[in-house]
Amino acid sequence: GAGVSQSPSNKVTEKGKDVELRCDPISGHTALYWYRQSLGQGLEFLIYFQGNSAPDKSGLPSDRFSAERTGGSVSTLTIQRTQQEDSAVYLCASSQTSGTYNEQFFGPGTRLTVL
Amino acid sequence: GQSLEQPSEVTAVEGAIVQINCTYQTSGFYGLSWYQQHDGGAPTFLSYNALDGLEETGRFSSFLSRSDSYGYLLLQELQMKDSASYFCAVRAPGGGNKLTFGTGTQLKVEL
What is the model's pLDDT at position A100? Predict the structure, then answer.
């Protein structure tokens, strides 16, 4: 079966522009996560969706960042008025359920470069 | 909040055994995970420990001591393809399956 997919794979934008990053989770996975990874660094949690519950937005670094998950499937991460420090790889992951541990399956990421 | 410490880099020779340590500080704890990430690739799950002791999966084993807030990943019979970054991650109460990751250990396997 298909894994987690993300688009675009690379995005170059100018400072101040808005960008949208897309994630298609594995079919049937109820939990979806967004992480950010700067060069040579660990994964920084951004936001987490679980079923129809309100998302956990505790990792979003500023109000320029927002995310939606439509129909419990596809998710879009939006960064408004991009800054150079937003340059990173944005990783999406999905897992089957929350409550008990289920491994997270990661997509290939979107490499964002803000000029 | 949570914080995790790992060595930044480890080098070992093919066929050897290497241990990657992880210490953590958390407000509550459910379990410790390990993920592998090759350069330019996506992280992939290796193991999860919720209870003290050693979990073995083929050449890889993972250990947890909750009283010491410490775990390690043990890689045996190292192969060149094991060269990658290894991340420990903590799952804590109130976060569902949300993980807090360490900064990662880059493992270099040499001939």
Answer: 64
d(Cα B64, Cα B86) in Å, to the nearest integer? 16
- Interchain pair A91, B98: CB under 8 A: no
Q: Which two tokens stand for residue A61?
A: 């670094």
Distance from CA of A51 to the nearest CA of B (A): 11
Q: How far apart are CA B62 and CA B75, in angstroms?
A: 9
Average pLDDT, consecutive stretches of 10 residues, N- to C-terminus, chain B (111 residues): 91 97 91 94 94 94 96 97 96 79 95 91
Residues of B with CB under 8 A from a CB of A: 30-31, 33, 41-45, 48, 50, 87, 89, 91, 95-104
In the prediction, which pLDDT does A99 show? 57
Number of helices (H) and strands (E) in chain A: give both, helices first: 0, 10
- Going edge to edge, which strands form the sheet with A19-24? A5-7, A19-24, A75-79, A65-69
